[in-house]
Design a protein that fits this description.
Helix content: 25-40%
Strand content: 15-25%
Number of strands: 9
Largest sheet: 5 strands, antiparallel
Number of helices: 9
Order of helices and strands: HHHEEHEHEEHEHHEEEH
Structural class: alpha+beta
Distance between the termini: 43 Å
Radius of gyration: 21 Å
């Protein structure tokens, strides 16, 4: 069974690290995190470049994150990602996966805060569902997707008591990786379920086994209301495990899952809008003075702070009262 604590350890500095500290002191670690993600994207691009039908996409992924432009609003010590060359291929590119996950995480945490005020009796629970590993990713993913839909439909049909009967809102995402023991594809699903009481794990396992015919493996655990991000991050982290699989598997997962909806919601979470823009939202910072910090990626060296004149966005950045590139702490 895939337990959330172990999953968190696999990517301790990815999506979870995108929320929290926003000042200049956190920027070096953020840039280093993005540099490691860029390295992973280059590994995928190098592999794709050897496959004739993927050479165009290889170029797109290789150029992702070639530069990053941050704005430091120094009067209030806030840093925002203002510009970047991003490919938006989150199933291939770890950097875009981080940014996309962070956007989704914030959007649903914001909705949760509203729900918590309006309906304080509801609590968030993390539910994990999985199916038996198999050699065919497409078949296993379809199996999991169909089973999850049937589980949710049984709740709404109401013919028999459903273990999800008390769930009044949910958001879920699909994740795929190779099973650590089988070496075969292991798709699973993480869900945030809002209810007054935890869904009964034994009842859920019995229902899930009846639906899938091959797995009873479910896990239900509470999420801290004081630190909801610790649980929500499980839903909005990487859809694929970039660091734990070879580029060939990453490309195969992209070929199989591209175009499929990997995040869904229902009830109180329905209608949450996740911004398409992967850059940071500057809302509330309009009119404040800022310093532009331009980073260029150098293969083998990572991101390096560079003269602003080297940035392709230099003309648009000259509006700053201070647009130099100072040393960071």
């Amino acid at each position: 069974m895939e337990g959330p604590p172990d999953d968190q350890k696999e990517n301790p500095d990815s999506v979870a690290a995108e929320i929290g500290v926003e000042g200049i002191e956190a920027l070096p670690k953020r840039v280093d995190r993005y540099g490691k993600a860029k390295n992973g994207a280059l590994d995928v691009a190098d592999y794709m470049a050897q496959v004739p039908k993927h050479q165009k996409m290889a170029k797109t992924v290789r150029e992702c994150g070639d530069y990053l432009v941050f704005r430091h609003y120094f009067t209030i010590d806030r840093v925002r990602l203002h510009g970047a060359s991003l490919c938006r291929k989150h199933l291939l590119c770890p950097l875009c996966a981080i940014r996309r996950g962070a956007k989704s995480l914030k959007a649903y945490l914001d909705r949760w805060e509203v729900i918590h005020v309006q309906r304080p009796q509801l609590r968030p629970f993390l539910v994990t569902l999985t199916v038996k590993d198999g050699p065919d990713l497409e078949e296993r993913f379809k199996h999991l997707h169909k089973a999850q839909r049937e589980l949710w439909m049984r709740k709404h049909r109401g013919r028999v008591a459903s273990p999800l009967a008390g769930v009044e809102g949910a958001v879920w995402s699909y994740e795929v990786k190779r099973g650590s023991g089988s070496g075969q594809w292991h798709p699973h699903l993480h869900m945030i379920a809002l209810a007054e009481h935890a869904p009964d794990q034994d009842e859920l396992r019995a229902e899930w086994s009846n639906i899938t015919g091959d797995s009873f493996m479910c896990d239900v655990r509470p999420i801290s209301q004081e630190d909801p991000a610790s649980g929500f991050v499980e839903v909005f982290k990487y859809a694929v495990k970039f660091s734990d699989q070879p580029p060939a598997d990453t490309v195969h997962a992209w070929e199989t899952l591209a175009g499929k909806r990997l995040i869904g919601s229902a009830g109180a979470f329905r209608g949450v809008e996740v911004p398409e823009d992967l850059l940071d939202d500057p809302e509330g910072l309009e009119g404040l003075p800022w310093i532009a910090l331009f980073y260029r990626y150098l293969r083998g060296a990572g991101y390096r702070l560079s003269p602003l004149a080297d940035s392709p966005l230099a003309p648009a950045l000259r509006g700053s009262k201070r647009s130099a590139a100072p040393s960071l702490p």
